[in-house]
Amino acid sequence: MNFDLTTFAFQLVNVLVLLAILRHFLFKPVVEIIARRRAETEAAMAAAEAAKTDAAAAKKAAEAEAEATRAARHDVLADARKEAEAERARLVQAAQQEAQRIAEGARAGAEETRAAAEAGLLNEARELAQAIAARAMAAQPKPPNAAAYAERLVTALAAIPEAARQALLSAPDLSVLTPAELTEGEAASLRDRLVAAGAPASVPVTVEPALIAGLELRSGAGVVHNSLAHDLEQLAKAMRDGGHPGN
Amino acid sequence: MSENPLSLPIAFQIGPVEVSTPVVTTWGIMAVLGLGSWLLTRRLALRPSRTQAVLELIVTTIDAQIASVVAGDPARLRPLIGTLLIFILTANWSSLIPGVEPPTAHLETDAALALIVFVATIVAGVRANGTLGYLKSFANPTWVMIPLNLIEQVTRAFSLMVRLFGNVMSGVFVVGILLSLAGLLVPIPLMALDLLTGAVQAYIFAILALVFIGSAIEEGHSPDKPEAKEGAA
What we know:
The complex is a heterodimer.
Chain A: H1 5-139, H2 146-159, H3 162-170, E1 175-178, H4 184-197, E2 205-207, E3 216-219, E4 222-224, H5 228-242
Parallel strand pairs in A: 1-2
Antiparallel strand pairs in A: 1-3, 3-4
Chain B: E1 10-14, E2 17-20, H1 21-41, H2 50-69, H3 78-93, H4 107-136, H5 146-181, H6 188-219
Antiparallel strand pairs in B: 1-2
Helix pairs in contact in B: 3-6, 4-5, 4-6, 5-6
């Protein structure tokens, strides 16, 4: 065994050359790519951290904005409530005023209606009174004195059936009703006519102011109506049964 | 393999210069490693392929080993330690190729590697502590230790050389003997054992070189620190 210096020198150089080759073609590129990846990872981490910070800031800003929005909403709602309350009060007041105005108008209208109705009733009553008076006066004899009423009484008595007339005239309580005291002449004339009609001569004359005008013959068997009061009563009855006296 | 493993076969001659077979084998290894490195690293990407991941794993493992021994940036020692590990491993495993004898089975190659480590240790010590600081480190713990420390510098480099040479050469020697005595398939278990031995020796050589360099760097900083001792090899 011997030591070859040439081979030793060759191997020395070879290993140094290989060191340079591996340094340039193996270690350097691999280390560079590892460093690049690490740098990119750190950059990504930094970006993620920055994004996280930005997100936190954005979240904080959003929360502040939300808080401001809540406060603004509360203010707006408070203002709206206040305005609504004022509007409601204004509307209630306006409604009350309108209702009062309508009620006053209704009252005035009712008053006018009532006055018009009263005026109409008065007018109608006046017209009715005129009609009744004209009708009643038209039914009275002309002239309306005791003699005329006596004549109409005798005529009415003659119109009664014979049996009813005899029963009336023969009744013991037969009397002649007059609204006022008759004069001697009027009483004598009346008695003469009644006697001529079949009445007894002693028939008494009784004053009955309710007759208003006219003469009536009355007994327990019946009555011969011949007075203004009776005519008015008949007109009133006709009005109750059939309406207007002119009908 | 009938020839003497300790002899140095000559491959060819260039004028007066004889080029031995281990040199040619080393050129082949250099070509394979250089070309392979260029091919594997020309298209590195941020999203690594499986091959790139393996490369990155190798480099980061070397860096981790360096960082576990020497404080500071591992980049300054990465090329040397990495080259020693990869070259010795490749050279040891080159025996798998029929007809190829590992360059590390010859003393010249191991001596060249040991010389590189010896010089690198001195250079690293001087760069880290300055010339005076590095020289002062030989006086640790007392000046009485200066001769022993100087001798240690040489002997540990020499031990590196002899250890690698002895282990690899013995493997080749045994395989050669078995091949000449038994037959074709009998040496295969020993060749498998040689693979393990080659890997272990590559790791030991690289890690001891790292320990020696790290010791030279850090001795100037902490005089009381115990010296790095060689592992059992």
